[in-house]
Amino acid sequence: MSSEALIDIKGVTHAYKTKSGPLPVLDDLNVSVKEGGFVAVVGPSGCGKSTLTRLIAGLMKPNEGEVWLHGARVTSPRSTVGMAFQNPVLLEWRSILDNVILPLEIVPTKLSRKEKEARAEELLALVGLEGFESKRPSELSGGMRQRASLCRALVHKPDVLILDEPFGALDAFTREDLWQTMHALKAKEPFTGVLITHDLRESIFLADEVVVLSGRPATTQYRLPVAFEGARTIDHLYTPEAAEMLNVLRHQIEIAQGRVAA
Ligand SMILES: Nc1ncnc2c1ncn2[C@@H]1O[C@H](COP(=O)(O)OP(=O)(O)OP(=O)(O)O)[C@@H](O)[C@H]1O
Ligand SMILES: [Mg+2]
């Protein structure tokens, strides 16, 4: 893979040990993301997408192959990775501000309490949650909680942001709002991103490349570059260009699901 890749997954093969024997999940998977790039990963349910996120974050080691971040091989959990999931898992006994600050209490930092608060407040304002700092998670809507969870994932300025279906549980309009928030966040807080999603529109709206994984054990089946002109707006999703991309992706998913021949 190219030497300029910030995330480089090289020939990763992995099987889980289960009571009924090994379960092959990834098979010679290769994915690379350049610095500042944003790759969406789509594929059939259960094909190994969340496994891939755990490997990038260093939470697991593959049986074969290598994962590289910033030119260093990943063999243990990395604090330079931020993660957000479908369920935001915010701590109810902490305010929104203190939930966002949490990674700064775990990752070593020279910041004072005041500076940590300022950092969290800055991010919360960026996602439209100014004034909600002292609320508890249960006082926020699902979309607001997911915004707070994105702030928490970014608060320690990670190089890499991994999103595992972060908008999957939201209604369509809230989801579209959050897509736009993601573009605003990326413009202000540059990161290299990997987005796992089941939503093909989401993949082409957010990413600059969409990788389709085959069914389990997953390998890279197809790559689609996404090149819209200028800053992205929801209007882009209603262009013939977008319709064509969605058509190609839907066909590739059907192949991955084994519903149609390649
Ligand atoms: N810790 C584990 N031990 C054993 N099997 C596992 C473990 N984690 C996941 N699996 C199995 O590995 C396969 C891939 O799981 P994974 O969560 O990576 O899929 P996924 O693509 O994220 O699925 P989904 O789209 O439903 O989120 C599944 O069959 C799952 O049951
Ligand atoms: Mg998953």
Short summary:
With 262 residues, the protein is an alpha/beta fold. It is built from seven helices and ten strands.
Which key terms come to mind for this protein?
binds magnesium ion, four-stranded antiparallel sheet, alpha/beta, 10 strands, 26% strand, binds adenosine-5'-triphosphate, Rossmann fold
Describe this structure in words.
This protein is 33% helix and 26% strand. The protein has 262 residues and is α/β, with parallel strands linked by helices. Strands 6-7-8-3-9-10 form a six-stranded mixed sheet, with helices on both faces. It has a four-stranded antiparallel sheet with strand order 2-1-4-5, covered by helices on one side. Strand 1 and strand 2 form a beta hairpin. The protein is globular and about 55 Å long. Adenosine-5'-triphosphate binds next to strand 1, strand 2 and helix 1.
